[in-house]
Amino acid sequence: MDSDPSQIPVVPIPFEHGLSRFAQSLSAGQARIVAIGSSTTAGEGGIKAYPERLLTFLEAEYPNGGIAMINKGIGGQEAPIELQRFAADVIAEKPDLVIWQVGTNAVWQGPNENPPPPSFDETTRAIRDGLARLRDQTQADVVLMDLQYVPAVLTPAKKDKAIAMVEAISELARDGGVNVFRRFAFMKGLHQVEQVSFDRMVDPTDDNRLHDSDWATQRVAWAVKLAIVGGVDKARSPVAANIG
């Protein structure tokens, strides 16, 4: 498996697990995706968020898949609050694929926020509990999406915590047997390998230097599409069928 995107154009790190449920639902012509998360998922600053762009890409890839995208993003939220919405916003939707974008607000938001952000441990515990609930109460394939690689989470005060959160999400996914869309590594590749400036990667109207630009959102959505297609192909491969 690739460790860090290191080619031009930068591509995402492949999913470790095949997307068997989603692949089956595509073949049946009724595939439901629930995207849950914060502002990356909900949309911010008039920039069309990744789920809507991803749907367009996937519909072009799987024109007979009958794909529905249910966007349950709410700006500013983090895993503990999102977990409280799981019953109504995720499980009741009977998804075939869940994309849960997590971790950024626990790193970026400061103690002066009202309400204050959850702690690192509260966030990781909620992710673990959420993955267990999805495993027990749905048949969906699950993808965790980690942090964006942007100046707001790369300051001296926040960078170590951001890297620790990325590593924690990876470990939680490994323990839970689910995939990670490694956005942090992908966007790091855009910046360091493709030499794309943060001025191009960050929404120019965002003084916090946190939210992705229109250009970066499009690249991320395309990368998620590539990772999903790889996961579907892996599920449909003869090797996967023999293992199953």
Task: Write up what this structure looks like.
With about 240 residues, the chain is an alpha/beta fold. The protein has a single domain, classed as 3-Layer(aba) Sandwich (Rossmann fold). About 50% of the residues lie in helices and about 10% in strands. It has a five-stranded parallel beta sheet with strand order 2-1-3-4-5, sandwiched between helices. The longest helix has 23 residues, at about 215-235. It starts with 19 loop residues before the first helix and ends with a helix. The model has no long low-confidence stretch (mean pLDDT about 95).
Short summary of the structure?
The chain is of the alpha/beta class and 244 residues long. 49% of the residues lie in helices and 11% in strands. It has a single domain, classed as 3-Layer(aba) Sandwich (Rossmann fold).
Alpha carbon gyration radius: 17 Å
Structural class: alpha/beta
**What string, H for helix and E for strand, traces the elements in order?**
HEHHEHHEHHEHEHHHH
Give the fraction of residues assigned to helices.
40-55%
List the domain count as a whole number: 1
Mean pLDDT: 93
Beta fraction? 5-15%
Global outline:
globular
Give the second-level CATH assignment, the architecture: 3-Layer(aba) Sandwich
Number of helices: 12
Q: How many distinct beta strands?
A: 5
The CATH fourth-level homologous superfamily = SGNH hydrolase
Termini gap: 21 Å
The CATH topology turns out to be: Rossmann fold
Report the top-level CATH class.
Alpha Beta
Q: What spatial order of strands do you see in the largest sheet? A: 2-1-3-4-5
